Fold this protein.
Amino acid sequence: MVRLQELTTEERFTSGHRLCAGCGAGIIARMTLKALKKPAVVVNATGCMEVASTIYPFTSWKLPWVHVAFENAAAVASGIESACKALVKRNAWNKDIDIIAFGGDGGTFDIGIQALSGALERGHDFLYICYDNEAYMNTGIQRSGATPHGASTTTSPAGTKIPGKPEFKKDLIGICAAHGIEYAATASPAYWNDYITKVQKGLDVKGPAVLHVFSPCPLGMRHDSEKSIEIARLAVQTRYWPVYEVEDGKYKLNIKVPNPKPVVEFLKPQGRFRHLFQPQFQKELEVIQQWVDQNWKRITALCGEP
């Protein structure tokens, strides 16, 4: 685990951005850049983090930063990495830098997954971080492949008959690990030491690495802004969000939850799940709890845990 004295005191992601109060993306960006040990370039897909941190002519990024489209963050990161290699080969560049790509769940699970898959297959040396607020929050709170079952969004609205999104969340880390990459992991900003340690591990590997981070969104998840870290912690404590890593193909559970809280404690503070507590949708709470239990059993089995 990282010790506080090992972290830089420099603020490379500064205050003054327009992210909502309590936004997980800003917390994640700041923590990520605290973990850096050498110069870095950030590639940022279109999304909340991008649009709110670079209101022209201002920027919150105190390092080289590139804005790209939803679909090509991994491709642009791959190009930067390849360009640096070519310059080194020609003796035109002698600096060792880290390359980090940020994408939301929409730009990762859905629109950008082709570019991400290609970059992982080719083996480019960069760290991809998906900050997952579980919907397209920047463009109107539409459902994504990361939106959980039962959540109400503008494109999976809860009505009198339909209890929100009918589908379940994709297994992003399973998809990425299947490419045979050296390092992939999940994390939560509520457990900062675990997250920063994983950022550093991901940057240290020679090749691609992927981090999938829970990112609370007061606007889209409809919870009080001061409860963001509490929500992120409840996601872990209810086993909704297992925190684990896959290193050289081996799964390891990083945060054990021997006595989990019922998943309703994670769902209740969020307005996107409010309809599930109506009498006609009570069974959906059981469906979600069953999914959580089955997913935890699957992950712990992969990790070799009892």
